[in-house]
Amino acid sequence: MTKLDLAFIQQSNSNTTHHLDTFSKHDSGFLWVLFVLVSAFLLLMKESVNSAYFFKINQTSQHFSPELLASVTDMGNGVVTGSIMVMVLCFKPAWILRTLLAAMICLVMTHTLKSYFDAYRPAALLEQITIIGDARHSKSFPSGHTATIFLLAGVAFLSSRRLLSRIFFVSLAVIVGLSRISVGAHWPIDIALGAIIGWSSIYAASFICKKRLLPMHYQFLILSALLLLLGTLSLLSKNEFPQMPIVDNLQNLYLVSAAFFLFIRYLFIHNAMKIQLFEAKPSTHKKYNVTPKKGRASESKEK
């Protein structure tokens, strides 16, 4: 570990110490949100309630443009959510390891349940519904987009003490989750379980993963590798809305913004730490004791 990393950690610890012990105090607000999500899931287990809420929410899509709904629902895409997560982690570097672990937990749980239940989507069972984008018919339960966006909301909620920031990310997650019903991709119960998985994944990861602030160059390497992975997925994955180029354009915008933000953020920190180390470094100039030479007048007197 270099002196630059040590200086960075010392400065970051002053800003993140009060966030590292969040779970020892059991954040009541986080648990209240989890309680609401579980209650909604239990309510939607009744098929008639699940269907009734689906039709009510799906019909609201008629009041919005398809491009807007597609852009909003694509925020639950792993590429977009991951790009936003990189920006968040630049401010909250102590949460990098926890977030990576939570993402793996969320991914495994979501795909395992999707494969196990292999539930039919609304497009496979209903005819008179609004469908925006490609129609999908299988692996509906739970919603992967909702799980991903609620993971992001959970990280932002627990790593921040600002009420406005918490409200913004939770509201964003709820809107993205509801948009999955509006575009005809999921049932309401899929959204509820996806939200529970994403929300609880970061909570579980925070108990498993130790509190550790990585050196600056490790943070930069991890986040850069994550961005490279997201960019690769963006090129290889199939777009859910092929007739709407705005979705691809926004996805690329999120990726470029995250890369630019990461570069500027760590370039600024690197330069700031260099200045701090230079100012704290003791002077290396040698001090010499210079004695004045005696003049000729004094020498003649001595003679």
Could you describe the 3D structure shown?
The chain is an all-alpha fold and 303 residues long. It has one domain (28-280): Vanadium-containing Chloroperoxidase, domain 1, CATH 1.20.144. It is 72% helix and 0% strand. The protein contains 13 helices and no strands. The chain has helices at residues 3-20, 28-44, 47-59, 66-73, 78-91, 96-117, 122-125, 144-159, 163-182, 188-208, 216-236, 245-280, 296-302. Residues 1-26 and 297-303 have low confidence and may be disordered.
At a glance:
72% of the residues lie in helices and 0% in strands.
List the helices and strands and how they pair.
Blueprint: H1 3-20, H2 28-44, H3 47-59, H4 66-73, H5 78-91, H6 96-117, H7 122-125, H8 144-159, H9 163-182, H10 188-208, H11 216-236, H12 245-280, H13 296-302
Helix pairs in contact: 1-12, 2-10, 3-9, 4-9, 5-8, 5-11, 5-12, 6-8, 6-10, 8-9, 8-10, 9-10, 11-12
